[in-house]
Amino acid sequence: MTDEPRPRTRTRTRRRPDVTELDLVGGPEAIAVTLHDPDPRWPELYREHERRIVAALATTGTQADVEHIGSTSVPGLAAKPIVDLVVAVDDVTAEEDWLEPLLAAGYVLRVREPGHRLVRTPERDVHVHVYDRGAPAVAEYLLLRDHLRRDDDDRALYERTKRDLLARSWDDMNDYADAKTEVISAIKGRAREAREG
Question: Domain ranges in the chain?
Fold first, then answer.
């Protein structure tokens, strides 16, 4: 028998049950949503945060898929000046593997809900959505992004919709996002048809 330490093994199984309801850390926030013309710095900001996230997660050996999503990921589309990223990990409930490194890298936790977490920069200019690898929401983000990158008419429709909604006041960014649901669903329907056709 030897006194050598045994190597630490990491298991990628669910370590605890997921949350069952939305936890909006810090509560609702009043916001002023404004659209900005497309900014060539948005892709650069995405790449900077992609590197930052990958480096942070490497400290725990966590593999992640990182993608630029949202309006700032679509060339030529006006957007609120918040760069959105989606990060797919093996297990979103295994927060010790990915949340702690992201907090150490300077992000703050904003949302914890079933199957989804959101961390963001303190300046609120970068939002990082974390899901399980293979989660349907990740595929939906990419479907919308890729279609808007290709389809001029739907890109223009989406921008018009956002501009129309900005004529209203919003108590919370989630309410603004919810108001776009019908148009987004129609655009994604056409994206699926185009992909299958």
Answer: 27-196
User: How far apart, in whole angstroms, are the C-alpha atoms of residue 149 and residue 138?
Assistant: 17
- Give the pLDDT confidence of 66-109 residue by residue, as tens digits: 999 999 999 999 999 999 999 999 999 999 999 999 999 999 99
State the architecture of 27-196 in CATH terms. Answer: 2-Layer Sandwich (3.30)
Exposed / middle / buried, residue 144 (Cβ in 10 Å: 0-12, 13-18, 19+): buried
The rounded distance, in Å, linking the Cα atoms of 96 and 72 is 30
Hey, what are 94's tokens? 């295994």
CA atoms within 13 A on the CB side of 46: 21
The burial of 8, by beta-carbon neighbours within 10 Å (0-12 exposed, 13-18 middle, 19 or more buried), is given as exposed
For residue 31, what are its two tokens? 């916001």
Q: How far is CA 5 from the centre of its chain?
A: 40
Q: What is the pLDDT of residues 71-83, one digit of tens each?
A: 999 999 999 999 9
Q: Are 138 and 88 in contact (CB under 8 A)?
A: yes
